[in-house]
Amino acid sequence: MNNQPPWLNWARTLQALAQTGLTYAGNPFDRERYQKLYEVAVEMFALHTGETPATIENWFAVQPGYATPKVDVRGACFRDGKVLLVRERSDGGWCLPGGWADVGDVPSEATVREVREEAGFECVACKVIGVFDANRGGEPFSAFHAFKIIFLCDITGGAADPDYEILAVDFFARDDIPVLSSNRTSAAQLAECFAHLDDPARPTAFD
Known about the structure:
Blueprint: H1 6-24, H2 28-49, H3 53-61, E1 70-79, E2 82-88, E3 94-95, E4 98-100, H4 107-119, E5 121-133, E6 146-158, E7 166-172, H5 187-198, E8 205-206
Parallel strand pairs: 1-6, 5-8
Antiparallel strand pairs: 1-2, 1-4, 2-3, 2-7, 5-6
């Protein structure tokens, strides 16, 4: 179910239409119309987030060309029944190690790299736990639509060693989960990870 505020869906839709239109439109009158849509999207985001229009425009400039969802990859690593989480410096919340996939990445390899860089552990991606709409239920709201792929991973080596974006690295039992960075890892997604730990034959979840 889409539990986002209506303005966010409207603003994202306007921004995507404007971005794609400005990329392909050759007619100057069409470009003028798409530019107006772009400005309305900026105004909507600025009004509801409290950010300046200049900041919103910087967000939009990160993803030029045809508007498509971004891809977030996460690794669910377990040890003695506890899940590996990292504490984000940006908001102080905990989440599965991961981040945006880079252009040219193989999804599983991107996940292994993120676990190593953020948490310090070497791992192998074993199966896809789920493919989720990353914009459902997390806070703060993101300007971009994104998909989230979570892999079940086996730890093969390494030790806790947080990078500069991470405050701490630790393992948590399912009944002792700390405050989450919910736009990175939601409680429902974490519950799905534990369900796959309990049942290795559980099918991949998807939205």
